[in-house]
Amino acid sequence: MKLATRMQSVQPYFFAKLAKRMVALQAAGRDVIRLDVGSPDQPPAAFIRDALKHAVDQPGTHGYVAAGGLPEFRQAVAAYYSRRFGVAVDPQNQVEALIGSKEGLFHLSMAYLEPGDVALVPDPAYAVYEAAARFAGADVVLLPLRAEHGFLPQLAEIAPDAARRAKLLWLNYPNNPTGACAPLQLFTEAVAFAQRNDLLVCHDAPYLDVTYDGYTAPSILQVPGALEVAVEFNSLSKTYNMAGWRMGMAVGCAAAVRALHALKSNIDSSQFKAAQLAGVAALTGDQTWLAPRNALYQERRDAVLAGLRQAQLPAQTPAGAMYVWAQVRLEWALSSLLMTCWNRPACL
Ligand SMILES: Cc1ncc(COP(=O)(O)O)c(C=O)c1O
Question: Nearest 5°: phi and psi at 155?
């Protein structure tokens, strides 16, 4: 049977295809070191795992949870924003629990975009912003992230027509894949841009607490006025090593939270209650274990950078996120492609 026309705009997720290849290689006995998705290899702290185990044993844990997430979870998110950023959000109207932030990014695009609209998407970027916009039938205008600008988009360079048609502006700092971090000034400019052009700024921020060298990343919600025009997607995946638990949140602009809630209440029935209660423990409990975890990542980052230096591949030192963005020399890339084709002539 013919699929819906909109399916023509969506390709299987790149990393899903890669994962299939890796499973095949592993099945063939190859030792594969994954350098693709940012999936933490360490477990969450013991007290978070204990909270899950305890909750699983309670009889009231196994039914449906109201759409939007447990009130306790939303309150814990609000407490985290108050403690971490000094930002007051209303847990009832400005927080929506997500089944991992990825679905929230996609669904928000579904809620806002339609043919004729524009999504302003950084380039390079996490693939979901563009995929969701295309699925919604909207146009994508790419905002180049260049090394000479610290991998920050130049909002002043956005063409007036694109700004007029834009409904969503995507930002992501600490950034995947460049590792760049943004000063609060970028968020201040983005909020002003959104106010001028009547659009929503979506800050995808799962790496706010994965930072190095003493750097502390800001939230866009710290900017005065941001709560009217910005929504921040945050996640327990990276901050608390809980990627497989699928715990995320959308925080900020009440209209955006309301739209997400209306859409999602028709699609999912929130996250398993025990996972949400463990999420409460993660957000409100002891945070001191994050510093040694970040120190471990920093050591790994430095090992990668040292290797790249040795190979004469220039790379910036990231102060956050889990990625190193290195410059690959064209002749090396070409010779690697030739070697691949040499070994597997079928790919020619
Ligand atoms: C920039 C960015 N946004 C969102 C996500 C998705 O995170 P989650 O596990 O909360 O769905 C990732 C995961 O790698 C990411 O790198």
Answer: -65, -30
